[in-house]
Amino acid sequence: MRIKGAVTKGVVVALLLTLAPITAFSAQKITPGSTCKVYNQKVTHQNKVYICIKSGKKLIWNKGVAVVKPTPTPTTILTPTAFTRNIGDKPDEVDGFQLKVVYVVPKDGKDRELDLDGTLQKIITEGNNFLTKEIQRKFPVDSWQGNYDIEFFKSTLTKLELISMRDAHRVLFNEMKIFERKDVNRKMYSFWIDIDSLYNGTACGYSNINDNRHAIAIGPQCSGRSAQFEDNRVTAWVHESLHGIGVEDTNGDGCEFLSHEPCTSLRYKIDPERKFYVGVSTVAGSDILNRRVWSGFTKDTSLVMPCRMLENLEGICTIGENVIGPPRFQWKDFSSAILQDVTDSNPVFVGNGIKSQKPWGANNEYTCSANFVCPSTTLSEDKLGIRKYRWVIDGVIGEIFTILWQR
Ligand SMILES: [Zn+2]
Description:
Layout lengths: L16 E5 L20 E4 L2 E8 L2 E4 L3 E2 L19 E2 L10 E8 L13 H17 L7 E2 L2 E2 L2 E4 L4 H6 L3 H8 L11 E7 L9 E6 L4 E5 L15 H12 L63 E2 L4 E5 L1 E5 L12 E5 L6 E5 L1 E3 L17 E8 L3 E9 L2 E2 L3 E6 L1
Parallel strand pairs: 6-10, 7-10, 7-11, 11-13, 15-23
Antiparallel strand pairs: 1-12, 2-3, 3-4, 3-5, 8-9, 12-13, 14-15, 16-20, 17-18, 17-21, 19-20, 21-22, 21-23
Helix pairs in contact: 1-4
The protein binds zinc ion.
């Protein structure tokens, strides 16, 4: 940590990482009632899905639920012959917030061309169909010439490196130099990595709350069919995307979509009682219907779209009025706080900061700890692109941070 004028600086805010459990293994022999190792692990064996449940102090395989071939939901305009391999970001056809899927093949991984045979496209569509059915919303998806713009990326990281690291979503974002693209449209990056699992074999996906990036593993261990989904990788990207728009894991019934308890009927519902994160309730962190992220709603400024600080003192905000806080530090106390725009040679006064526990707004994950305060001000910006800012706290000049203003 680099500290300038250390007197007033406090602690760096810790980030909460959430994991999605392994959703399905295949090709493993299961005897109901026999012991298992990973709580909530699901295994498909001879057309039944078994779940590792608690029985007293032991973990055992349950009796299994038959896999039913789902009736396919009619999908969108996908023409199988038209799939192209997209390297780099194609010109955007969707205006404003959108989901961006990146198909990542490790350095030593086989390129299975899942972007060219329609496999990944189906997973996107099935996920959006599930959202539509459950909450009458879907994510806008980056598109190119009539199909989804799924970006292909061959990483310099190996399978082992990607499986063992705990922040592949951030590492890949940086490896691909995505911030430097200075995209005009705000995107949620969904890295679909062709590896067996994440987090040393314990997860099929992870995300930080309110992050614009998450990772899922799309290799064999995390793939399969379920009673509900033709391809259960759907659950991984939708689950992590909901974390990305502010939802925490819930303690709901196991079939509540953001619960990490076993779902024995294998039919997920998104907050069916509307008590965690859909509608009025924000028990699990945010009301997703109030987020400015859904198809047809991305221009509705009455909906919420908080700024997001990334690493390296870089952040993203959507143009319009925003609540701006500090990039990473907290203070014991201060009597004056001034935000300056230092993009050009002379610093320009932007606003006076008030003390706040939620300096980037109520819907941003940045929370000042008890006994600390953070400066916060409201800033309106209508021009796209990069601007640089700094806080001056009690006359002490703080670190410069960059904000990329996007649509
Ligand atoms: Zn989760």
